Amino acid sequence: MTTLADPVPGGRPGDLRRVAPLTAGLAAQGVRGIVLAYVDTAGVGRVKTIPTARLEAAVSWGVGMSPVFDTFLAHDTIVTTDVLGSPDGDLRLYPDLDQLVVLAGQPGWAWAPVDRITQEGERHPGCARTVLRRIVTDAAARHGLTFKAAIEVEWAFGLGSAPAGEFVPAVRGPAYGAIRQVELSDCAADLLAALAAQDVDVDQLHPEYAAGQFEVSVGALDPVAAADRSVLVRQTIRAVAARHGLRVSFAPAVSADGVGNGGHLHLSCWRDGVNLHAGGERRYGMTPEAESFAAGVLARMPALTAVTAPSPASYLRLRPSRWAGAFTTWGRETREAALRVITGTAGRREQDANLEVKPVDLAANPYLALGCVIAAGLDGMTAGRSLPEEITGDPARYGPDEAAALGVRRLPVSLPGAVEEFRADRVLRAALGPVLADAVTAVRLGEAAAVDGLDDDRVAAAYRWTY
């Protein structure tokens, strides 16, 4: 489990007791440095690194980093809000020792996610990890709920020898094809070994649809730890690939045509060790609370896309008939629906039943994505929402009149359209708080302005190696 206490100047008491033997153990394993990692509003992983010997100081007093990164765009241009974007001020990065791990794919290094607090010891309102932890903690206190979450990771392997900026698939062959698995067998085996050494339980690793594309599915954890794991898995994939002379792209659209990289989000609600998505009297075994949670997520799906599909390149992926979930629909095991209800196999439903949110890609900050999805679901639960009619097959087949009658609505087709939905959504903005909600708006509009006038090919190229 992830630490549920906010860091404080001087360090969490439990951490201070642990840090000396932990530091000695890391040094004995040849760890020379520690990566302190977080994800900014634009979805870009940012880091500072410290020598292993400085871990005690970092745990006690944090490591400095400017708050200006909360309004960085993906290409490091800076936008501003009334609070963020100034060169003034400082924050302290505090590593979460519960999630510290030796990096098997990067010998000599360990990794830990961080929470960010102010120099005065207060929560930083722009820290997405802290916001997610607050949402999860409040759900436990108010509703008696816990959650299990996992984020799928899709990426494309490219040749490291390709000209700068270009993508040349490292392997071709049919979708899900044996050819790809054989040709990248050594790299994939090393990746599995590295993830196992880091205690990441892998459910599946396989070739995917697009050229050079693979996917890894990992076990579920509490939401904060699941977001941490998503960041760690990508760090590991990139490092292992580099050791094999390969580059990887987690961008929503590596090229303008074809299927992009998703980051589908899986989530289930639990109370007292019981999965609320199984064994109930509502459709497909959902309890009334689970159905209302699902209905809350579906109702806010257009606004959620500002958080789950946050890049201009996201809208090259989020298109009909590409299994990206481009319409406000739900269905059991319906891969074209924005919300897929997964019941699991008979005999495993109490453990495996969950919701899959499909309009999510890996440009998304995973802490923001999970926090907003949970907030939407809790609002639906509080309001006692019901799911509309289930949709089967591809919703793109409906004409305008039939779609309207069924409540089938196209999700935003552009980032500005998603921002408009987000701005109007009081629940999501309240969940993030005014400082972070305004940063989301400013960064998304800044990204849209940065690519204004570019055709699809140039938009894809602009973000190809950013994520």
- The coarse silhouette is globular
Rg of Cα set? 21 Å
- The overall pLDDT, averaged over residues, is 94
Relative helix content: 25-40%
Write the layout of secondary structure elements.
Blueprint: H1 13-28, E1 33-39, E2 45-51, H2 55-61, E3 63-65, E4 91-95, E5 101-102, E6 109-118, H3 128-143, E7 146-151, E8 153-159, H4 178-183, H5 185-197, E9 202-207, E10 213-218, H6 223-243, E11 246-249, E12 265-271, E13 274-275, H7 288-299, H8 301-308, H9 314-317, E14 327-332, E15 337-342, H10 349-352, E16 354-357, H11 366-383, H12 400-406, H13 415-423, H14 426-432, H15 434-450, H16 456-463
Parallel strand pairs: 1-6, 14-15
Antiparallel strand pairs: 1-2, 3-4, 4-6, 5-6, 7-12, 8-10, 8-11, 9-10, 12-13, 12-16, 15-16
Helix pairs in contact: 1-2, 3-11, 5-6, 6-11, 7-11, 8-13, 11-14, 13-15, 14-15
Task: Kindly describe this structure.
This protein is globular. It is an alpha+beta fold and 467 residues long. Helix 3 packs parallel to helix 11, helix 8 (301-308) crosses helix 13 and helix 13 packs antiparallel against helix 15 (434-450). It has 16 helices and 16 strands. The model has no long low-confidence stretch (mean pLDDT 94).
Name the features:
467 residues, alpha+beta, 6-stranded mixed beta sheet, 16 helices, 37% helix, 19% strand, globular
Kindly summarize this structure in a few lines.
The chain has helices spanning 13-28, 55-61, 128-143, 178-183, 185-197, 223-243, 288-299, 301-308, 314-317, 349-352, 366-383, 400-406, 415-423, 426-432, 434-450, 456-463; strands at residues 33-39, 45-51, 63-65, 91-95, 101-102, 109-118, 146-151, 153-159, 202-207, 213-218, 246-249, 265-271, 274-275, 327-332, 337-342, 354-357. It has 467 residues and is of the alpha+beta class.
